[in-house]
Amino acid sequence: MKAFIIRRFLGIIPTLLIIITVSFFIIRLAPGSPFTREKDLPPSVRQNLEEKYGLDKPIGIQYLRYLGGIIRGDLGISMQYVDREVSYFIINSLPTSLLLATLALTLALLLGLSGGVISALRQNTWLDYLIMSGSVIGISIPLFVIGPILMYVFAIKLGWLPTSGWIGGRTGNAAVILPVITLSFPYIANIARLTRASVLEVIHSDYVRTAYAKGLSQLRIILVHVLRGAITPVVSYLGPIFAGVITFSVVVESIFRVPGLGVFFIQSSFNRDYTFIMGMVITYSIILVLMNFLVDILYVVIDPRTLKKKT
Amino acid sequence: MNKDKDKKVMNEVHAPHTQGKELLLDVKNLSTHFFTPDGIVKAVDDISFVLRKGEVLGLVGESGCGKSVTVMSLLKLIPKPGQIVSGSVNYKGVDLIKCNTRTLQKIRGNNISMIFQDPMTSLNPFMRISSQIMEPLMIHRGMKKKQAFEKAIDILKMVGISDAEQRIRNYPHEFSGGMRQRAMIAMALACEPDILIADEPTTALDVSVQIQILETIKELATMLGTAVIFITHDLGVVANMCDRVHVMYAGRIVEEAPVTRLFKHPAHPYTQGLIDSVQQLFDDTQEPLRVIEGHPPTLVNMPDACLFYPRCPHAHELCTKKRPPRVHLHSTHMAECWLHATHQPDTFNTSPPLPQQASDHEQKE
Amino acid sequence: MNKQSTKDDHIRTPSSTNPPPHAHSRSRFSGDSFGHSFGRDNPSPDKKFATKNLLSLQDFASEKSISLTKDAIRRLLKNKMAVLALVTIIFYFTITLLGPVLPIYSYRFQVLEHRNLPPTWNKTAGQLWYEREKNLTEAYAQRQNRELSPQEHAELKEILYRIEHDRISIEDETVNPHTRHYLLGTDQLGRDILARTIFGGRISIAIGLIGALTAVIIGILVGSIAGFYGGKIDYILMRFVDIMYGLPYMLLVIILMTLLGRNVINLYFALAFISWLTVSRVVRGQIISLKNAEFVEAARTMGANTVRIIAIHMIPNTLGVIIVFTTLRIPVFIITEAFLSFLGLGVSAPLASWGSLIGESVPLLETAPWQLFVPSIAMTFFLFAMNFLGDGLRDAFDPKTKVRR
């Protein structure tokens, strides 16, 4: 187990290196510099700028310097917000984004798992049909549709909740509700469907039949035998879910004007702020890779068979 | 043997055997049907049998003939869309078909327990062997964790797992196939049940391991005085293990007899075919392998006829028209076949030559 | 009885007049279970039958897939929801394809006076414009507790006059713009939302369809090569896929879009570039499980070459999975495109897609909610239909799952 964890952790490094390298070179080799928009920039000013950001050096040197910077936690200076370090923005707004993602993921797991289990246990009853049609709605309506609609109904028409803001903001802590619901919406549906399918599969499996033959009660069979087996596909799906939540948090943040990383992300990609984009990509990648690492470990804890296979 | 006296047509009524020990299980007219979109599949059709204390009862037949469904029905473990449509299973005065779930749960794994075909999938892969064996002990015997753990080790030793103290902490995937089946047996015998149902327990195992597992089952059953219902399609295993044998075909018991008698005087053409194909393996003949031609029928919307007639070497018109009666050739020997019926229509005389033993009966008519 | 079952009969012994139904359905499930059922359901050791089987194997794979597709279509047509979804999708395709010749206004023509007009059944744009201006002016005056000033009266009069006499030229035709009739309202630049939704749908659906197809084709190529050859080729290809999987791909798409410039073609490439991964894995798995199936081995012993084996024997057997996958992939593609366009990183003005329409509507949600609702409803119904069709297809191609679920 220990060896497995260490190996997995070491496996993170090449992945991150690849991400950094790929995005670095894509950005640097692409046509156009961040300063092309400022027309008629005097050559001397331009040279000064390029010197400041190290763009005058050969690309290999730039890459190595950048890598060195990352190790020291230095992501370079933003190109649009002059004299501000990229890490300054990230440190300030990342906690908000992470909180949003975590809350949404928790809600999605809570509702999705229970919905899926109930649906499977009451297979082919009205409750099952209700939950499953609900989940089709959840999958079919993208969150950038459901978000504005929720905002229109609950914030604008009914006035129950603020349209924008965040915890500790002017609009009060209730501002957290709509973004979290919106962000978790598609994943509730996905998790419910996945859970239902896997619970049904486990219920019909041989070892659950054995459990019945042992004379266990229905409740014990479900709690002890079924759920454990049924949860593994959900756990293996956690990685992609988290990636989705992180990515779509950009949308949700922009809809509800949540002061997270998302806003900066959009801005910097509009402004071709290279250092900022790179910083974002690296930050998001580290989060995703770490999350996948945790999921892998969780998976082994839940399903003892995988350890044998993976090591 | 006085065959004539016992030989009579028995339709729908099962004659309980008078001889033998205490009756443990009395199954009467059990029918389990599967309601599929393609029609009703009569997987088990009007089956009756009894099980006595300490005996080993064999249930033999091809794949898909309803052996497993029969024993699953005994404990009401039939998955949807299957349903037990009629019959009773009497265990110590309790009808397992009609009794409530709580009673059934107390009997399952405690008085009647089961071993399944595939030990790879029948153990919970997410739980340690220890907890799986401890489960029935704690639930049925009310043992505390520690006590149950020690008992579980004892049982594991009993079923022949060396180093049980260590291995009990393992997960199923760390066990070999044979060891898993041993663990299954340990689990099933943990509460020292009256009846052990073994559903093809060795089919999925290596041949070398099969014999060991069979020995283990037989030894422990004798030791604990457990009666065994043993399902198999292997006649060799039947010969070694069983006291009495029921031959199943297409959801019905077509022949029942004590094991020695069955091998000596198989009465049903199907049984004859089965035994023929096995015995030939031990002969030195060069002739091609004799097999029973064809396949078991689909069990959907079956006609009221003998279900074996398409494959039967002695098939006759009558077989296609009417279901054969249950003929008692002897107090312990029953066959469901027109060949042995007393009231045969005249046309039947033109049938192909009857097998040796069967025609014996005819002459004595 | 269909072709499939006669084939089965022929393989089974002639004496069994009634082959078990489960054997039929089982062989329909999927390629790999077919291989198993073949061995399992045919225990007859009779030599004659064995050779017969081998001979018929050659055309077995392709024939099976044809009848499989037929069977699937028959099952699909029995599924009411799936048929309804199919009808909806055909409706969408027709409307969006006919977009340029439909009697609708231009999707890009702006009438700035007609900004943010609500949907209407019977009123012309001029009427709505005048009503709005009048209400605004009166409300403004009322707040100051006074009557309308002469100047304001004059302004309103001028609007009335302009509604009568304004002329503009659209496509060499001089018309009065204020007689226009916007069924579903206008956007913040006075463009017809109906037209924009239809033309937006054109782009969204096109990207979804072409993107999914491209992704599937690349995926099939990579997956079947990896699965069939195995060994080093498989290892290298799949490690590459693994690494690509590890990348935060939406972020990469965003980077690509910022660098390449925001237009439809780039968007399509950026999306197709990253979405073949899953298909390749699915196809590879299918191919590997088929590789060991008896009928492929039989084809190989008969000297069929590799490409032929893949193309004739294996791809048709993965067809069901691929069709289902493509169908379910289209909505994902549409959502991804919409996500980017929503953020303003996808299609750029004056072109529209459902995503960009929804994105543009959010800031005006309070005053002009129809700008959100119209494209949202259009998009949601389409996604619904695609998902239902995908589910229906999956059940049709794999009846086992239907029973299970």
The CA-CA distance between the termini of chain B, in Å, is 15 Å
- Basic shape of chain B: globular
Number of helical stretches of at least 4 residues of chain A: 12
Query: What is the tally of beta strands of chain B?
Result: 13
Rg measurement of chain A, Å: 24 Å
**Counting H and I runs of at least 4 residues, what is the number of helices of chain B?**
14
Average of per-residue pLDDT values of chain B: 79
Most residues in contact: chain pair: A-C, 50 and 41 residues
The mean pLDDT of chain A is 80
Elements of chain B, N to C (H/E) = HEEEEHEEHEHHHHHEHEHEEHHHEEH
Helix content of chain B: 25-40%
Largest sheet of chain B: 9 strands, mixed
Structural class label of chain A: mainly alpha
| Most strands sheet of chain A | none
Please compute the radius of gyration of chain B using only Cα atoms: 22 Å
The parts of chain B where pLDDT drops under 50 for at least 5 residues are 1-18, 345-365
User: What is the total tally of β strands of chain A?
Assistant: 0
- Low-pLDDT stretches of chain A are none
Distance between the termini of chain A: 9 Å
Strand order of the largest sheet of chain B: 1-12-13-11-10-4-9-8-7
What oligomeric state is this?
Answer: heterotrimer
